[in-house]
Amino acid sequence: MRRHHRTLAILVAAGIAVGMAGGAAAQKAPWLAPQNSDKLLGELQALIAKGEKAGLAKKKYLSELKQLAGRYDWPWSKLLMREQFADRNYTANPAWTVRGGRFEMHSEFGLVTIQKDPKPQAQQQQQSNTTGQLLGAVLQQVLTPQTNQQQQQQQTPPPATRSDISTAFKITNGFDIRLVIRTRNEPGRFEVGPYLTGQNDEGYRLVYAPGGNPSLALVRYSAIGSGVVAASSKPVSLATGQDQYIQWFRHSGGDMAVYVNGKEAIVANDRTFSKGFDGIIVSNLGGTYTVGEVSVYGTK
Q1: Are residues 149 and 224 in contact, defined by beta-carbon separation less than 8 angstroms?
Q2: Helix 2-14 vs helix 59-72: angle between axes, to the nearest 10 degrees?
Q3: Which of 24, 112, 115, 157 qualifies as a FRET site for 183, CA 20 to 30 Å off?
Q4: Rg of the chain's alpha carbons, rounded to an integer?
């Protein structure tokens, strides 16, 4: 299975082309995009057809060739949504809904979210110095959901410790999500991902926890079970106060890859969700973040 995971990453990287960032990020962005692979793809498909006709290869080998051609073909060609906050208004075109917390517009950089940790400063310092504590805590919450009895015992809701904002639109099962953000790398965590409409917002989340180990992870929320799909093997640290480019691919077959500033950070496979999604949600569970762009491409 790991070999198939790596295939997506290798083939995506093979088709790299540098594009231009828009909105507040008026500089070159390291988005991965297809170059002219039509000729290579055509020759590969012709070779498959020749092998089938002449019986030159075993069925298993031909199947692998077909999968290779399918992965090299760039399926994310349809722009589903692009938000660069150029109008400095998140309530329209497209409309974002604040589910909790606070979001504001910055005149130059875009959507700003600040979520302060309610713990005393001494506890914040201790939390910052504990490697992996932040992401470890959220992963523990994901893997240990509350029972109905525990939920009923919570008579008084705790103070708001997160800010959430979402926008609803149809997303295909295969997608290319592009995000431009700035961070101060304070203790906390930032989440973004596609969701399914419902009480628990099932779907995938890309989780960034500054200083955590791991510091970047793909998390799955689903009715049949939630957990970590994959995490970065090396520490990922976003530069403070600078535009950072995050790109997240998902193939319809379940292969996923995450790139940070053009470099591979996570490769995974998960087939929990076979249909599309209903929108994008952005969550701040501690820290200061500015979102300059959110773009989503889908398959035809």
Answers
A1: no
A2: 40
A3: 157
A4: 21
Instruction: Tell me the three state secondary structure of residue 65.
Output: helix
> How big is the chain, counted in residues?
300
In 10 A of CB 273, how many CB atoms?
17
**Measured between alpha carbons, how far is residue 67 from residues 96, 136, 164, 205, 212 in Å?**
38, 36, 38, 27, 36
Query: Which DSSP helix (H) or strand (E) runs through 44?
Result: helix 38-54
What confidence tens digit (pLDDT) does each residue in 79-117 have?
Answer: 999 999 999 999 999 999 999 999 999 988 899 999 986
111 Cα distance to chain centroid: 18
Q: How far apart are CA 186 and CA 117, in angstroms?
A: 10
CATH class of 76-298: mainly beta
Going by C-alpha positions, the residue among 282, 248, 277, 221 that lies closest to residue 96 is: 282
Is the separation of the CB atoms in 262 and 29 below 8 Å? no
Q: What is the pTM of this model?
A: 0.73
Alpha-carbon distance of 220 to 193, in angstroms, equals 10
Contacts of 283 by beta carbon, 8 Å cutoff, 6+ apart: 162, 163, 164, 165, 190, 191, 192, 205
Domain parsing of the chain, residue ranges:
76-298
Which residue's structure tokens are 């035809």? 300
Look up residue 297 and give its two tokens. Answer: 């491409």
